Amino acid sequence: MPKRKKSGSNNPLSSARKDVGGLWHRKSGAGYHLFLSYYGNQPIGVVTTEGDSHQSKSASTAPQSDGNTAAMGNSRAAKKRRRKKNGSNSASSADANVIAATSTTSSSFQDVDASHPLMQAFNSDSDKYAHLTNFIHALSRPLPLTLRIRKHESADSSELAQTLSRNFSNFVTPVAYDPTKQIYQSTSGSNLCKFNLGHQSPELKSIVVDASMNGTLARQELGSMLPVLSLEAVGAMKKGSKVLDMCASPGSKTLQALEIVVSNSDTKTRGRVIANDVHPKRLDSLRDAVHRSGVPADLTDRVTYTNFDASVFPFPKSKKLFDAIICDVPCSGDGTIRKDPHILPMWSPRTSNELHGLQLKILLRAMELIKKGGVVCYSTCSLNPIEDEAVVSAALREMNADSNSYQLFDWPEDLLPGFTRRPGVDTWNVGFYDANNLEKDDDDFGSLSFYDTYGDAVKAEIEEAKESFWPNSENNKHSLHRCSRLFPQDQDTGGFFVALIKRIK
User: Which residues are known to be catalytic?
Assistant: First the structure.
């Protein structure tokens, strides 16, 4: 197996999370409040819609400043002073109003867990962040169980579908927007998630485990399915395609792509998937996951494993570039907080800011490796524009500097009819966190500072600032609205971002 050259850091995510406050940051609850402040100060379209804006006059406006705004209200000290001034009864009343303000969208899902630390942080500042109600309510619930029936030729899924429909329709049903009836999600009334599956229905858990081991079923989130589904829908991924999965671990997208490109009945159209990961141990785990998947060996043998830094992935010796590239980069993961309780306690915009440069390098390399007519799918499980549209915009600007060789693809409208996707944004607010800017109060969290321009951040001596963080005048030309955002509150999912980039020259 090809080996990469040694680099200084084996874990870019751990490196990105450095210096955000350590144990104090995690124990104090600062991450929850910073998360609220950061997304609460973003314009409509980042995590909210026009329909949410009536709940707050500030929802659609950028922080007002002369270049720099310290976001107010995200410290407990400030909240204590407001509560003391306004009286505890009014604060309690505001909390009750927010709990009651759940929209039709939110109320059709599970009940909100008021004890969730994110809900507690939200209720302490509910008057300011009312426009985030649907978003926060969705994130405060466990992620519903999502299943995908595999579609390779060896999978006999009809019996499984009948069993699920006949015996477990009170727990899981096909999603309404998938005409193939291959994507299942737990029903809203069941409150079923991966953590309580065995307790709620031991029989269903046994069926899910068995079907996962025999290659019939994949336990995979909706967001994780989108890159491969969209690449197939635009015709970039099909039988016989040569596909690169640049950051492949844990392997769900590799296996999903394999089902499409490899035919075990037609040896002339046998595609291949190159599964790459920079971490040797993660690559070993990926290899084990592929072999444990139950997918037939004549399919899994068409996976080639490589161990390179994705940002310098080598050109194929054959000189033949890739038909499709899955570029699901390392990210802050704030779209996964419904299933990963470790994300929010350590949340800070610094993580996204630090990862931005690496994400851009990986996307640039993917765009170099894709053939003419091929498509790169750039994706993250984050809703932070610094990791999403800012990266896509910077990559298009650099790669199209001499000639317009790349363009964003529209979301394929015939894919998942009825599925709610939100368009990409072309404006956002850039924030930074100073953990040292604390009041003399044990409960103070410090503050976020937003800067209107890169020049303003430089003047303020913000060392981590990069010019590519900020919206660019060329964003309209790039048609960033063609990117896709998956809001947790729309279909009771995680958060996700997808951009399809086609090489036309």
Answer: 381
